[in-house]
Amino acid sequence: MRILLSAIACYPDRGSESGVGWKAATALSKEHTVRVLTSKGEHDGVERALATGAYPNLSFTFFGSDAPYHENRLIARLQSWQRYVDWTRQSLEIARKLAAHQHFDLAHHVTYSSWRIPSPLWQLDLPFVWGPVGGAAVYPLHLLGRLATRSAVFELVRGFSNLHASHSRSLRNCLRNSDAVVASNKETFDKLLDLRGRSNGMHLLFPTFFTDQQVAMFRCDPEDKPPADPIRLFAGGNIIGSKGLIFALEALQIAAQRGIKWRLVVGGYGPEIPFLKKQARALGIDDWVEFHMGFSGDEYLNKLKESHVFILPSFRENAGITMLEAMLAGCVPVIVDASAQAGVVNDSCGFKIPVGRAADISKGLASVVCLLTEQPQRRIEMGRAASELVAASFREDSYASNINMVYSDALQQRREKSAR
Q1: Extents of the domains making up the chain
Q2: Which residues, at least 6 apart from 5, have a Cβ–Cβ distance to it below 8 Å?
Q3: 334 - beta bridge partners?
Q4: For 156-166, b where at least 16 C-beta lie within 10 A, e where not — what string?
Q5: Residue 313 burial by CB count (10 A; 0-12/13-18/19+): exposed, middle or buried?
Q6: Per-residue CA distances from 270 to 12, 75, 122, 294 (Å)
Q7: CATH number assigned to the domain with residue range 2-209+395-419, chosen from the 4 options 3.40.50.2000, 3.40.5.10, 3.90.650.10, 3.30.300.20
Q8: What is the per-residue pLDDT across 92-135, written as a single tens digit (0 to 9) for each?
């Protein structure tokens, strides 16, 4: 088929939204001819990748702003959302011009993967697939006091944004007119099902997957890791308040008081980092915590392969890319029982701490760190199970097969709609 793919974020060899967009585009291009609508800011990286000749069925249309973002991460994040709104508004006209000169069998939106801002491409005279989209999970109100003030304010504003989006006419039009709606986690599925008002055309699909080459690159036998004295923990990604790292710091203080030796690497940056550094000093554990701006390439791979535990008690995740990469590398995931992460981790490969009182979360995390330190063979076995789970269930061919089933359903939905 000929697919018109909407992906404002689509850049080779990056994580987060850009990685989701690029991997979706390249995976689909192995079976289909794909034209991607993306941001002008992705141009240079995409063109370098296309110049290799490795993607003959993939082409791009670039538009929107490519101006640098503000140095302040919070301001930059607000800028990115405004650009997305502007880009989305332009996308329908550009898509119509493309469709007037070339045939497409289907339109599909993948990034940004937020349910709050609908795609207008359902208005094309084409079957339309929206998603996977996520973002319906919320940070628990009773835990807001454990965040930096601006992070707590952000979560409150985000909650109001969710309420506002729920009443958006453009969102409801997108949901009710899309031939297929794909959610990335259960919270979002339930939210969109309620707003759509019918289950036909609804799908649940995790957006993260790995090529065979990536699986081989990340995998590591936990028995080959350095000795766990101290036990090495890793947390990564965009460090915002909802990642819950304050609970990990409190847990590690408890573990230290119980005689456990550990080291934590925070391999990422974000607006919560200054607050977390201050809290680490106040807890008296700052000498055992390394705050890093983020790793890349072999340095990132090596850091995961020398880590025993991935600890990130995040309360809302769409994809959990860093966790899956860490699991591939044989790290045992230690999380809270919430959002997309909880849908991946099971008792054979990791630990999910119930979302209760703040003190109970920290104590629960601490108990797991102590257990994994004191039971090295169990840690090794769970690390292997984590790696095997991701290697078996989150491969590119599985994603492509599931998306093709969504496409078939969307085409059927459109035929039935046309026959009415």
Answers
A1: 2-209+395-419, 212-393
A2: 24, 25, 28, 34, 35, 36, 37, 107, 108, 109, 110
A3: 311, 351
A4: eeeeeebeebe
A5: buried
A6: 22, 11, 35, 10
A7: 3.40.50.2000
A8: 999 999 999 999 999 999 999 999 999 999 999 999 999 999 98
3 state DSSP class of 354 = coil
For the stretch 357-367, pLDDT in tens is 999 999 999 99
5, 46 Cβ separation under 8 angstroms: no
Report the distance separating Cα 109 and Cα 25, nearest Å.
11
DSSP letters, 197-221, are: ---TTEEE-----B-HHHHHHH---
Name every residue whose Cβ is closer than 8 Å to that of residue 139 and which is 6 or more positions away in sequence.
155, 158, 159, 241, 242, 315, 316
3: which DSSP letter?
Answer: E
Place of tokens 């550009």: 94
262-277 pLDDT, tens digit per residue, is 999 999 888 899 999 9
- Specify the 3-state DSSP secondary structure of 289: strand
Q: What percent of the chain has pLDDT over 90?
A: 80
Residue 300 tokens, joined: 């990132």
Q: What is the rounded CA–CA span in Å between residue 374 and residue 166?
A: 48
Fold entry, domain 212-393: Rossmann fold (3.40.50)
For residue 324, give both structure tokens.
């899956």
Measured CA to CA in angstroms, residue 170 lies from 164, 190, 192, 344, 396 at distances of 12, 19, 13, 32, 32
Same fold for the pair 2-209+395-419 and 212-393: yes
